From TrEMBL:
Pfam families: Acetyltransf_8. This is GCN5-related N-acetyltransferase. Keywords: Antibiotic resistance, Transferase. GO terms for biological process: response to antibiotic. The keyword Transferase applies. Residues 6-179 form the N-acetyltransferase domain. PROSITE patterns: GNAT. The keyword Transmembrane helix does not apply. GO terms for molecular function: N-acyltransferase activity.
Length: 182
């Protein structure tokens, strides 16, 4: 799907079976340790669908087909995030953060393209956000390299509890500033 046209729409309950099928894949579950039973997906995504969570869950569509998921919130919306991020580096007020996965076709540049398109959308839709910050476990090279290819830079590193207990705790803090501001 090179040169795909990217669009994003909020996850709805009709998407739950698709969303559940992604972390069920071992290559995704390796890094994204969500459970995928119907009850677990309702627990993890239902509040966002209902607008009862600050986090937003977005379905990423490449040429109209759903291929991935991007979660977006302000870093400060969640105390645990703010503490983890602040332990690794500066967190500008109103900075936002992302989490993401590709449901298929990993390792062929799609993740980089999806993130580039989502970040461009963030600058337009989140005018208050001066920067996007992401923490990534150092072992997840595809994830932090995809961010670097979008323009993020590693601005801090240190130990955080990994999602996957098998991983070394070393994490990177990656940052991309709003164009024309920093
Ligand atoms: C993270 C993710 C979105 C990246 O998207 P992707 O399409 O696989 O990555 P890209 O093809 O755009 O490649 C990005 C970089 O990772 C590298 N890469 C991709 N797959 C790799 C692999 N299996 N092993 C090592 N490096 C890999 C690419 O070579 C490229 O780096 P380079 O510029 O140094 O060559 C995707 O792999 C994914 O969904 N992973 C599972 C869920 C996950 O890890 N989410 C992130 C949690 S922080």
């Amino acid at each position: 799907m090179p040169d795909a046209v990217w669009s994003f729409r909020r996850v709805t309950r009709e998407d739950f079976p698709l969303v559940a099928s992604w972390p069920a894949q071992p290559e995704v579950h390796r890094w994204w340790q969500h459970e995928w039973s119907a009850a677990a997906v309702e627990r993890d995504f239902g509040a966002s669908v209902d607008g009862a969570e600050p986090n937003e869950d977005w379905l990423a569509l490449g040429d109209g087909s759903p291929v991935g998921l991007v979660q977006c919130s302000a870093v400060a919306d969640y105390e645990e995030n703010l503490a983890d991020f602040s332990a690794l580096g500066e967190v500008p007020p109103r900075a936002i953060t992302l989490d993401y996965l590709l449901g298929e076709t990993r390792g062929q540049g799609l993740g980089t393209d999806m993130l580039r398109a989502f970040v461009a959308r963030c600058w337009a839709e989140r005018p208050e956000a001066p920067a996007v910050l992401v923490t990534v476990v150092a072992a997840n090279r595809p994830s932090w390299r995809a961010l670097e290819r979008v323009g993020f830079r590693i601005v801090g590193e240190g130990d955080c509890e990994p999602d996957n207990p098998d991983d070394d705790p070393l994490h990177y803090l990656l940052r991309l500033d709003r164009p024309g501001v920093a």
